Amino acid sequence: MNAGAAKALTSPSxxxxxxxxxxxxxxxxxxxxxxxxxxxxSQVHPDRFAHAGDAERRASLQWTTRVxxxxxxxxxxxxxxxxxxxxxxxxxxxxxxTAMPPEFLMQQMELREKLEEAKDAKGLDDLRKNLxxxxxxxxxxxxxxxxxxxxxxxxxxxxxxxxFLHRFDExxxxxxxxxxx
Amino acid sequence: MALLQISEPGQSQAPHEHRLxxxxxxxxxxSLVATMRSGVATVxxxxxxxxxxxxxxxxxxxxxxxxxxxxxxxxxxxxxxxxVSVKRFMGRGLKDVAHVESTPYDFVDAPGMVQIRTVAxxxxxxxxxxxxxxxxxxRSELSLGGNISGAVITVPAYFxxxxxxxxxxxxxxxxxxxxxxxxxxxxxxxxxxxxxxxxGIYAVYDLGGGTFDISILKLSKGVFEVVATSGDSxxxxxxxxxxxxxxxxxxxxxxxLGPKDMRLLQVRSREAKEYLTFHGDAPITARLSTxxxxxxKIDTETFCSITQTLVNKTLGPVRKALRDAGLTxxxxxxxxxxxxxxxxxxxxxxxxxxxxxxxLNNLDPDKVVALGAAMxxxxxxxxxxxxxxxxxxxxxxxxxxxxxxxxxAEKILPRNTTIPAARAQEFTTFKDGQTGMSIHVxxxxxxxxxDCRSLARFELKGIPPMVAGAARIRxxxxxxxxxxxxxxxxxxxxxxxxxxxxxxxxxxxxxDIERMLRASFExxxxxxxxxxxxxxxxxxxxxxxxxxxxLSQDGRLLxxxxxxxxxxxxxxxxxxxxxxxxxxxxxxxxxxxxxxxxFAEQRMDAGIKRALAGRKIGSL
Lengths: 181, 620
Prior knowledge:
The complex is a heterodimer of chains A (181) and B (620). Chain A is mostly helical and 181 residues long. Chain A has helices at 3-9, 16-19, 30-44, 54-75, 77-87, 102-117, 121-148, 152-180. Chain A folds into two domains: 12-75, DnaJ domain (Helix Hairpins), CATH 1.10.287; 102-180, Up-down Bundle (Monooxygenase). Chain B has four domains: 21-186 and 367-383, 2-Layer Sandwich (Nucleotidyltransferase, domain 5), CATH 3.30.420.40; 237-305, ATPase, substrate binding domain, subdomain 4 (Actin, Chain A, domain 4, Alpha-Beta Complex); 400-502, Substrate Binding Domain Of DNAk, Chain A, domain 1 (Sandwich); 527-610, Substrate Binding Domain Of Dnak, Chain:A, Domain 2 (Up-down Bundle). Helix content of chain B is 37%, strand content 25%. The interface between A and B is large, with 47 and 65 residues.
């Protein structure tokens, strides 16, 4: 085996998709991703090198960290889309671009009002269920835009919306937590 | 044609000596040590055949100590110098310690961690824990007939960085090579999962003497993946004793008690609690030093009603862990019960009702953690036979972040991130010409820094003067496989680089450990130099063995030149090993580590290629 070639394939700057040997697409085979993740972990994890020398332990720590990070990014639809668009030279710019269509913003405000009103776990469960189906439909649109239409600019707008919904999901979590006291 | 054998990394092809490795459950109430014997995990008992070691340490004024059952049975006689449940003080400041008023100790508030004044001097919880670990180390050396090559020590999953670091320091102080800190519920899952060939999603409910953990794990084809963990590091069986103790004081209308009477009634309360597990009511009788006689009886119903809030308190973290995992109780295939406090019938009942299924109790809740730790220690020591491949993927229990303007905590690594993990974030200056930046590292879920645990404060100096907002300070967090954090900060816009790296130390710096080690050697009449020499030789030998095994597996990845450089460093180290200069051995070992850096990288690359190649073949 040529060590130089191995390095090129898995260099830290290569994409997360390459690391797991997956095609760079928004629609991914989650089982394949999990399997690749586990197969790689079983080769590089620090538990495999607890008795090795410092150099190997350090390399193992760095690689496992990188593999964990890549897995996190690909597992989550928002970060997966963001990574994919970056590979196509598009910055989703969650932090700076907050311009949203007025009707979407209205809808977000209504959702938050409903969250304020939800007094018990049942109310929160219902909100979450609705949110989930909305997220799924947005994800389908993102997959269409990126994988089929190659409309990366349009996809970025959808991903920003998806990010809004993810944030709302976190707010539901916080509401559950305050219910638990 | 002969087939080429390709062995897994991390284990040598040549049959090597079986390394003695142990798993230690350093518990609040009891501690245990276990090891793998002929493929079976076994708890190592003491000379009297008792598996548990009560986590009780008594100090005498002549510098001697008494540990375990003897200390436990004398605790009411000498409560100030007999330390029980020291785990509750690990990595904690005085303000964090609950029920200070009903502990008999003479606390000394030290920076980072509380200390206790005894007749043998001021002791840190790390030193007290090290006494317990030393007994377990000696027990295993005697029983296994050799030096212990490494130990896995378990910690509550919900332990924060300070508590973990303190545990690791205690291991070091006890002369142990700590291979890994392992989360208690994860250890229990290993023991349970491997024993039952379990697959699917399991919850581990671990109510120990002083801590509560809940972990949700996905078990699949030899991979133990923690998906979420939560808990309360200040809730355990001790609190049930405390409730009962308060009830006794109230019922018997007792005046404020002295330390001896207090300890006596606490012991009686614990005994009554244990008795109630198998009986409808329990007597509580005691003769106090005032001559007063306490004679009470408590029934199950009363005990349940005075402790119900404690049981309910465990269910909040359970719900949180499920939410974090994105799961509901219907997804859980089984609930494994761990920790002596889960023996209480009301705990079993509440957990059963919550999960709508009978909890699993087929492994001894006192031993299961130590058994799992022994299995992991065996793997980490490299004794694992081929084909028995399994892997642990654990998480951090609490978010890690830094303080930003206005006393707010900015999360950098969220809770339940799989470890090892790293993340970096950029910050900037807020004043023109600012040349320093103070960085405050915190752990916890709350928005305000004041509500989180402070882990470290350090200063990045030498930022070149710029207008406010122009500097780019990159703060990087790295959490290793023990769940321990190191933080570095770097300013790089101007090319003039300023950087600093810290590991939180909680008042116990390397020099303190050195001092304590010195003191314990002097006591054991052991020579510090010969100890250092032995350690360097063992480390050097281990490094040579690991390098040899790496060369035999993946030597083909190297160019002749690379190989020659490594072999030269090996020869140099080998030549120095029998010598008396421990510093020279260390330098040669460092040089060999340096020489193998590229090789280590190449091996990781090859490992990843191998993993992906295997997957492709498998899916054809």
